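We emphasize that the prediction below concerns an isolated chain of 569 residues; any contacts that depend on oligomerization or on bound cofactors are therefore not represented. The input was used exactly as deposited, without trimming of termini.
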Amino acid sequence: MGEERYQKLIDLGVAIRQQTTISPVKPQVEIKVQDQLKLDEVSDYSFASLNRNTTQLQQQLHQTIAHLNTVNLSDLDENLLIKNQFEFTNQANELNKESQPITTDLFDNLSLSQEYYLSLPEELWQHHLTIVAGDTELHPYERRSGSGGLNKMLVVGLANIQAIRRSHSTKVLLSAPINLNTAENAFVHTLDHLVECFNQSLLTHTPSLARTYPLGFSIVSLQNQHINGFWFGQKDKNRQALTAIAKESNTVHLPEKIHLLVADTDEKKGTDILAGARALQYFCEWDSEENCLLADTPRQRVALLFNPCREQQNHGGIGNQGTKKQLDILQKIVCNKINLLDKQLQICKDLDDAIGIIKSYRRQVLTAWHHHLQLISEFDDFLVMVKNLVLIIQELSSLSKHQINTREFLQATLANYASDYSEEGKCVQELLDIYLNQQNLMAVIAKIDQFQEYYQFSEGLGEGGQRALRCLKLLHKFETFLLATDNQTVLNYLAKLDPNLDNYLPSALRKKLSEHKIHLNLLGIWGIDLKVYSPQQCLELAISYGQYYNHQSQDLRIAFLQEPLIVYH
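Result of the prediction step, given as a token string:
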């Protein structure tokens, strides 16, 4: 609201309530809702998608698991065995029809839908009319109507962590890339469904003073700070005209693919590391096979971000609670890998060997972090999937070949997601231990039932944790990420998150790095102190990395990005 407007409202005696997901306005009203995700919209590699495959036994006895297809995996998750898909084939001659009643029971146990509670402040039921006000700007996930708006402000801005957990999960936010021609997606459908559940409760809950659904008021303003349009109504999708205005003003053509992207932080988002990387995320989202923006280089691409990271309440500018928690996990994974690669670096003969080793370990780090984020975000779906696999194994007891395939897949799945980085990862390790040591499938199911009861209200990625997915995408697109800031707390954190590996190299190679004005680390994240380096010197450092990693290119193409844009090639 701004300090002046806030003070005027206080002077008028207007009651102002402020909340975060961690500290909601109480008392709350709970609404029981059910997941309504469209599976064809979520990530093909989510646990929900794999659950769909396990339940598609086609309601026939003679169909069973045959084998796992081999798929080409990206550098980001090439070790992600869970990405392989099930294939069901006709095995009519191998099954006896007498076992049909047993298999029919199996279908009764396979499940995808899950119920949870949407909680909102009780005050919403204590007024005749609720008006939700906000602005409209580009949003990386809510393609239909831009950021803000009626639905997002209600069931994300005012809702509990359970609603945020499901609308900001990996299966939703890591699904298909942004497409200009796509008006809706899983994120939008999730918000629409939650708002519909809320609206029905608002008019039927007793006691309630509400006489109509909430109304939304949104404006769109561009660089001139003038209002370019506004919307007032009940249906948030009708706000699309405002998004069209924002899209028209913020769509640009990139004439050539680039090696180096230099980005500024838009004014309102320079609070912490990843909040300020929003424009970079947009660029990463727009880059695709159909709209290729980044140069196809066998080496590395570079991003330079100028970001003040000025919000001290966000752990000194690092990030809020959820963001910091997931970055700390990334740091632990990096530390574990450095302990493994140091001896390999000490015997390297040239820089190409060293870079190759680091790239291999980097890929393992990002895969492990992806596993962690996916597991804590979709843990309920993971447990359902594992339980379904165990039930299928039980039904395949007479078919040793197919049971072996399924057992191998189950063991690989548990091994991939077991870790000591989170309580969920430790649970998966416990399931793996039971499976390997006891060889008792019923004991595995019993433990899954116990976990499902205990973790049904888990926080997932936590408040702000979805920004870790922004970091994951950024590191996947740019092998070198330079952050220029004068925030010493952030600089110290980045140095700890991704330590300098130069000292692990032989002295001759360290000398070569110095000549090229570059350093080596595992993730490629570097903090640049703006109290020591000018913006021009920061750019020169970024160019040094770009020139070394793309020395075979005729020229180094650089793009400058000042705000989130829709970019097409």
